[in-house]
Structure formats: C-alpha cells, structure tokens
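Please check these two lines:
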Amino acid sequence: MSSVLYDVPGPRARLRNRILGVVTVLVAAAGVAWTIWRLAETGQFSARKWELFTYSRVWEQFGQATIATLSAFAAAALGSVVLGFVLAIGRLSDHAWVRIPVTAVVEVLRAIPVLVFMLLLYYGLPVLGLRLPSYGAVVIALIAYNGSVLSEVIRAGVEALPRGQKEAGYAIGLRKAGVLRLILLPQALRAMLPVIIAQLVVTLKDTALGFIITYPELLYYARLLGSNPQFGSPLIPSALIAGAIYVALCLALSYVAYVVERRTRRSPRATGTDAAAPATTTEPLAAPPAP
C-alpha cells in the first residue's frame, strides 16, 4: 500500500536499504575500532595515565565540579524560563510600544553567542568599574541567550493554537491577560514542553563554556587534571570521564522531561472516565403500587 507522500519500497529497494544499513554499521564499527586502536597506540590506556583516578580526593573534586555545573544550570534554567515567559508576553502584546522594543531585545540576545556574552561580562565589565564572579557571568549569559530562545518557542506555541481558543476566552468576558494566563499559555506550555526541555539540555551543556572564564565546572576540572605532568598529562582520560558525567546528566534530564510530558498529557478526557457519572443498573424499574 502506498500514499501520496510515501511509496512502499519494492524488492530492489529493500535489498538496497539492507546493503546500505550493513555498510553503515561496518563503517561505524571500523571508525570505533580505529579510534580505540589509536588511543591504545598513543598510550591512553596505560596504567600511568589512569593512576590519578585511583585517588579518592580526585573523585571528591569531580563531585564538587559536578555540583558547580548543576548549580549554574539550575539558576540558568530557572532564569531562562522566567525570562522566556516575560519576553514572550511582550512579543504577543497588542501595543507596538511594548512589542517592538521587546522584539529588538530578543533578536539581539539571540544573535550574541553565549561565549562572547560570557567574555563581555567577565572581562568587559571590569573596564567600566564593575566586577562579576565567574559564576554570575556564566549564569547571566546563559539566561540571556536561552531566555530569548525560549521566548520564541513559547510565542510560536501560542500562535499555533486555534484562533477559536482566544475568541472563546473573549466571549466569556476575559481580558487579554486572562486569556493568556488561563487559556493560551497553559496549552502552549504543554504543546511545546519537549522543545523547552531540549533547550534546557542545551543550557546544561553550555555550562561547559564557563571553563574559559575559570568557572570551576566539570570541563575546567578535567582540563586541570589533564595538564598534570606527574601522571603523563592524562587529558583524554579526564575528558572521557567528564564526558561520561555530562552524558549521564543529560540522560537524566531527558528522562525527567519524558516523565513530566507523560504526566502532563494525562487528563480525564484521555482516560475516558467520568467520576461524576451516576451508577446504572440493568434491573427493570418496579411498577407503581395500585391505588
């Protein structure tokens, strides 16, 4: 069976797809094998380079670096969501004197790379007599960029809703603020939740840029360990461990997003149950008594 947009592959196409799949797997396996071979040839698996990670103090510092990463991420994620809602409401305003400046702010914040923003805050503000700690520079830069991105996500979610939703709110006497707060924003948030969580995962990974301004997060500590000449400068082992921690954090956040999305989409209508429905019986009603 075929449709307008898709034709079911025939015997030759299926054979070609199988061949392409096998070739892709073989190429990927060859790439992994070559990478492992090169790491072994350069001594990256030697005991000297991994001896550093047998000390408990190293893992304690890895834990502190992970906490620093999560601390910056938590503050940046919360600030980004709040700023995203504020900017989205401004972008949806009917007043041009509000909408146009907010649009300009969003476009400027989206255009500035996060790393450039961090450098401007950390190294540029002291020229003006203001000093920010590395933590503040990382968090503010992440909030500014990701908040502007989330504002566009939320605005797109609101504008994608059927026009009848807004008109129904006005019909029952709600004002613009009430329609946004009670009708449009909750539905847009539910619809765009996967995109919002995906952007928060990007926020978590962007905390690694803080090592350039000496913020003591995971990548900064991995680079510090990798430059230790006493253990053969184990840069790649340190990067592998830090990368594994980043992957674990991102997978945990993705799982939380999956659970939240699944619970958010549950509703009484989806389950098809109605607690207020009266009980029914199959027995016939008794005839009224004779006078």
Observations:
- The chain has one domain: 49-264.
- The first helix runs from residue 11 to 41.
